[in-house]
Every structure is written in C-alpha cells, then in structure tokens.
Amino acid sequence: MLRRGLRIGAGVALGGVTGGAALGYLVVAGVALVVTGGRARHRVGALAVRLVALDRRRVHRYLGPSVAGEAEAGRAFRYLLARVPVGLFSGLLWVLLAWGAVTVLAMIGGWFIGRPLDGIEATPVTVPYLLGLAAVLAFLTVEGILAVGRIDRWTADRLLGPAPGAEYERRIAELSTARSEVVAAVDAERRRIERDLHDGIQQRLVAVGMLLGRARRLPTPDAKLAALLRQAHDEAAEALVELREVSWRVFPAALDAGGLPAALETVADRSPVPVVLDVELDARPVRAVETVAYFVISEAVTNAVKHASASRVDVLVRGSANELAVTIRDDGLGGATPDGEGLTGLHRRVRALDGRFTVDSPAGGPTTVEAVLPCG
C-alpha cells in the first residue's frame, strides 16, 4: 500500500510538471497559429500528439494501465487543455506539502537550538497543538494528492479512451467473431470425425465383409455354420451402409471435393422423393457459409420427407459476392413450427453467421424455408 501511494505521488508530481508544460505549449501554439495564420497547425498538432503520448506513459507507469492507441490532434488538444488545471493543482499540492514539511522541521530545529520560529516557544500546549495541526494538514494534503491521481487517471481514460459505445461495439464484434469461430471449430471437428469413420471403422468393416464373403465360398459340411456366416456377412454389409449414412450426415466429403453444387446433387440422389435443384453461384462461398447452407438444405429436405409427407422438394440457391440465399419449398402437409428441434438448430447455425432464417408453413402446406447468409 505504501509503495503504491509513493508511486501515485510521484506520478502526480510529474503531472504537475507536464501540466505546466501543457500550459506553456498551449500559449506558444496559440501564438504560432495566430502569427502564421493557421499554416503551422500540422506541426502544432504533431507536437500535441507527442506531448500526449509522453503524458500517457506517465499515467500508465505511475497511475495504472492507460488506454492504448494514439490520440489524433483534436483529442490531444482537448486533453492538454484539461491537463492544465489538473497539473497545476497537482503542483500546488506538492508545494504545500513541501512547504509544510520545511516549516515543521524549521520549527523543531529552532526549538532545539533555542531560536523559536516566529517567536513560538516550545510549551506543553504549543508542541502537541502545532504537531497535531501539522499532521492533520499533511494527511489532508496527501489525500488530496491521491485524489488528484484518480482524477488524472480518469481524465486520461475519458479524453483518450474509446468514444462512448465503442467498447460495446468492440465487445459485440469480439462475440460475433468468437461465435463464428465456434461454428468453424464444430465444422472442422465434423470433418475430422468423417475422415476417421471413412479411413478407420469403414475400412475395417469392408475388410470384415470381404473375409466373411470368402468364408461363405469355402466348402463346409455344416449347414448351421454356413447360415451363420451368411447372416454375419449380411449384417456387416448393412452396418457398412448405415456407417456410410452416418458419415455423410456428419459431414459430406463431396462438399470439400466439389463444393455446394456437388454436395446438393448427392442430397438429391439420396432423397426418396424428387428434389429439383436450381443453383446459381457467382463464386464459391467461403467454407463456413457453404457448410451452413448445405446443412440448412439437407435438414430441410429430410424434414420434408419424414414429417411433411412431401412428394416434391424445390431448392433454389443464389449466391453473390455479398450474400448467399437459399430457399427450400415442398408440397407437403405444412404445419412446421419454427421452434421445432430441427428448425431451431438450423436457425442457430444461420444466426451464428449473422444471417436471416425464416419458415413459412401454413397448415396444408406448402412449407418454405429461407436462409440468407452474408458472405462479406
């Protein structure tokens, strides 16, 4: 605590010096601008910026971490104007503290050598009275110095810090970035799982199926063993099909290989009902946008088949440099609720990229799902 108080006191003392320097600068700068008719404003502004940078280092070192960045000339002038009264008051407090300390020492020294200061004799009444008064005044002055340190720091934060609302905007931008990074991390993990399934478990199941197929072709007199081998071979084939379906739902390899059009063609091929694709892209979207668009379309097609009893699904995709818009319309029963589990998940994915997601599904159909994703 004592060390911190001494550091603040030193910062306030230096603030008195910089306050005087600010006053001198403003006087000289005003004269220079008047004499040159404003032609020297660039040099005057550059000097103001340097003075503010110097004082910012003082605040940062002695009064606590200060705001980052460099103040432009206008803000530098305003800060220096505010620094003049604060700095001069800082110097005044230190002068009072030094004057009081010298006075007390001179009085005590005069008592010891027999030459009382201003004729004030050392008596049982005057000694405690004057020393107590000196202690109170010293305490008030020190508290004033600490308070000026807080004012000094507040002035720097207020006049050199971000504009009102800028901190909230910065935080919102950070949260938006973090949200997008989470989506990207989830998609990257999906890719990794898909590769592990394809290169690991799937290959082992293929090998098991091949071995069982070879075992079935061997001559065996045991009919029960032949039946078990046939059943095991069929189960391995079905497990492989299901694994491929799971792998595709986790993340389609075609999306990385051929982009969104190729992945959507696979969605249409796998759908038990006709899926009509109309895709026009000016350029391939960024990976995050492409991935979200794919899952929106894939999930919407799946919902149309499973829950709406649709017999046809139309998919419209339009992509430009600014945004990617997808529309999925089916001729099913309708009645889909935007707060349903599947649609809520899609809404969250779209919102994570600051996109727009709407669902129009009146009873009796048709159902239209739309998503607009910014590409910038």
From TrEMBL:
Domain Signal transduction histidine kinase subgroup 3 dimerisation and phosphoacceptor: 189-253
Name this protein carries in UniProt: histidine kinase
UniProt xrefs under SUPFAM superfamilies: ATPase domain of HSP90 chaperone/DNA topoisomerase II/histidine kinase
GO molecular function, a single term: kinase activity
Residues covered by the Histidine kinase/HSP90-like ATPase domain: 293-374
CDD domains named among the record's database cross-references: HATPase_UhpB-NarQ-NarX-like
Bilayer-spanning residue ranges: 12-35, 88-114, 126-148
Source organism (scientific name): Cryptosporangium japonicum
Key words of the record: ATP-binding, Kinase, Membrane, Nucleotide-binding, Phosphoprotein, Transferase, Transmembrane, Transmembrane helix, Two-component regulatory system
Matching PANTHER family: NITRATE/NITRITE SENSOR PROTEIN NARX-RELATED, NITRATE_NITRITE SENSOR PROTEIN NARQ
Keyword Metal-binding: no
